[in-house]
């Protein structure tokens, strides 16, 4: 079976009755949402807090009751995908363009679980370009700054136009500056015009990994594999 499907479906089993669940975005958590929908049809009571319009639509189609982040004090758990995950469970997210809402929901969650296929697990982050969500006004100036810093900025496009996020911003994909990714994230955080970036550091508690033949987890505290 596809590693994404294995991981996505397994994570849905970790959700308990009565939970408020942050619902991530992407092709792996798709399987989680589908499975949660099946569990809801069988009597599970949960409330989902979506991280994108696409996820909200999918969750509604699956019959999952939905709440807005503003009406929710805290999620019990958020389940989301990731583009790269390192051995300390730091990650790059935003390949699907939902990083801002994903980070907002993740930071309001007691626990964060990521679902990935095993190819996403890396020794060091950075082969995947780092998505940076930027304000459209004057974005070319920001791109010039990134260019000067040697970050190879590329404006994300869709159908010949700049890709626009659910929050109404553009995305510039850049090269991650390592090894001090914490300092790099802080530099981006402080830059005028940057709304958010896809470095998710110290956020993920547990990653569920599917490799096609088995599913295993790695948790941040122990950083060891547990085969499910
Ligand atoms: O961060 C994301 C969207 O903004 C996704 O979670 C990430 O891109 C992984 O997606 P997929 O599961 O489709 O590979």
UniProtKB/TrEMBL annotation:
UniProt binding sites for substrate: 25-28, 80-83, 93-96, 120
Source organism superkingdom: Bacteria
Catalysis performed (reactions): aldehydo-D-ribose 5-phosphate = D-ribulose 5-phosphate
Gene Ontology MF terms in the entry: ribose-5-phosphate isomerase activity
Keyword field contains Isomerase: yes
Single biological process term from Gene Ontology: pentose-phosphate shunt, non-oxidative branch
Gene3D superfamilies cross-referenced by the UniProt entry: 3.30.70.260, 3.40.50.1360
Main EC class the enzyme belongs to: isomerase
Oligomeric and partner information: Homodimer.
Protein name as it appears in the record: Ribose-5-phosphate isomerase A
């Amino acid at each position: 079976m596809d590693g994404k499907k294995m991981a996505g479906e397994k994570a849905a089993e970790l959700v308990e009755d009565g939970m408020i669940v942050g619902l991530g975005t992407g092709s792996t958590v798709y399987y989680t949402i589908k499975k949660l929908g099946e569990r809801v049809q069988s009597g599970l009571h949960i409330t989902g807090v979506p991280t994108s319009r696409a996820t909200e639509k999918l969750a509604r189609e699956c019959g999952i009751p939905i709440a807005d982040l503003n009406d929710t004090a805290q999620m019990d758990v958020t389940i989301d995908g990731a583009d790269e995950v390192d051995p300390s469970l730091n990650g790059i997210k935003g390949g699907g363009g939902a990083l801002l809402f994903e980070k907002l929901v993740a930071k309001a969650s007691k626990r964060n679980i990521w679902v990935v296929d095993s190819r996403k697990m890396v020794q060091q982050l950075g082969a995947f370009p780092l998505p940076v969500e930027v304000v459209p006004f004057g974005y070319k100036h920001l791109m010039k700054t990134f260019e000067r810093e040697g970050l190879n900025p590329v404006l994300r496009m869709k159908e010949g136009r700049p890709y626009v996020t659910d929050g109404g911003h553009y995305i510039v994909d850049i090269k991650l500056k390592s090894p001090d990714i914490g300092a790099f994230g802080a530099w981006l955080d402080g830059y005028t015009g940057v709304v958010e970036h896809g470095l998710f550091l110290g956020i993920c508690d547990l990653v569920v990994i599917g490799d096609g033949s088995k599913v295993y987890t790695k948790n941040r505290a122990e950083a060891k594999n547990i085969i499910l």
